[in-house]
């Protein structure tokens, strides 16, 4: 397809795969799921992206082609400091003011994200 999806999370691999299962999302839609146990560093440290970045580089995908979708200031800081493009997802209002005050592009949900990605 046009997009490849991966997950970099502070949660454990087990928790994420269970959440995907609960939402009826096939984990095989993601080329990689990186849980907290897969790296010694964690967000907001940008080095959290090194393992998945190496996988993408092997596939011929450049940093400039990556869009990181995150819901927190730690997501924003770690991804942009690593050199990735970022869009916020404000599925609750917890970090909405952060996205607005920092002039960060954001969507409210995955349906809006689909519209943005296909624009």
TrEMBL record:
<dbReference type="InterPro" id="IPR036412">
    <property type="entry name" value="HAD-like_sf"/>
</dbReference>
<dbReference type="InterPro" id="IPR023214">
    <property type="entry name" value="HAD_sf"/>
</dbReference>
<dbReference type="Pfam" id="PF13419">
    <property type="entry name" value="HAD_2"/>
</dbReference>
<dbReference type="InterPro" id="IPR041492">
    <property type="entry name" value="HAD_2"/>
</dbReference>
<dbReference type="InterPro" id="IPR006439">
    <property type="entry name" value="HAD-SF_hydro_IA"/>
</dbReference>
<protein>
    <submittedName>
        <fullName>Phosphatase</fullName>
    </submittedName>
</protein>
